[in-house]
């Protein structure tokens, strides 16, 4: 009789552990869904000429989904070493998860820029740089 009770308890314990395991898997699926990241592919040419209009473009995704309704996508740029004298411009929402703005640089130099992006209660700001002309200005020489 004791062996039957022992076996029954063992089978019951295995059943409870299996049930707990199934609950954990469902919990992991929910956690995976919640761990989506806000990603921004910031596209900027490496070089451009003085007075050439270039497009700054941000492709915004959340997980595998393109974000067509970001709260903010704003570009900020400045000449390298002079970040306190930056310029900010709002982007155009192209309706397909891409945000863009045209900009023209009037002087040679290396310019750095952020794509300030806020969506899904998250903020990210990838940074890029571009060389205009030869990449040197009168101040840098």
TrEMBL record:
InterPro entries linked: YtkA-like_dom
Domain YtkA-like: 35-116
Record keywords, A-Z: Signal
UniProt keyword Signal present: yes
Protein name: YtkA-like domain-containing protein
Source species of the chain: Oceanobacillus bengalensis
Signal peptide: 1-19
Taxonomic superkingdom: Bacteria
């Amino acid at each position: 009789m004791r062996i039957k009770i022992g076996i029954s308890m063992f089978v019951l314990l295995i059943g409870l552990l299996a049930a707990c395991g199934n609950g954990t898997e469902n919990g992991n699926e929910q956690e995976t869904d919640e761990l989506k990241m806000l990603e921004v592919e910031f596209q900027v040419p490496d070089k451009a000429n003085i007075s050439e209009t270039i497009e700054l473009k941000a492709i915004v995704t959340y997980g595998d989904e393109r974000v067509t309704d970001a709260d903010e996508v704003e570009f900020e740029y400045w000449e390298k070493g002079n970040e306190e004298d930056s310029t900010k411009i709002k982007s155009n929402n192209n309706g397909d998860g891409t945000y863009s703005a045209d900009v023209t640089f009037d002087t040679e130099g290396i310019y750095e820029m952020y794509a300030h992006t806020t969506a899904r209660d998250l903020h990210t700001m990838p940074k890029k740089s571009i060389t205009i002309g030869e990449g040197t200005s009168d101040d840098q020489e």
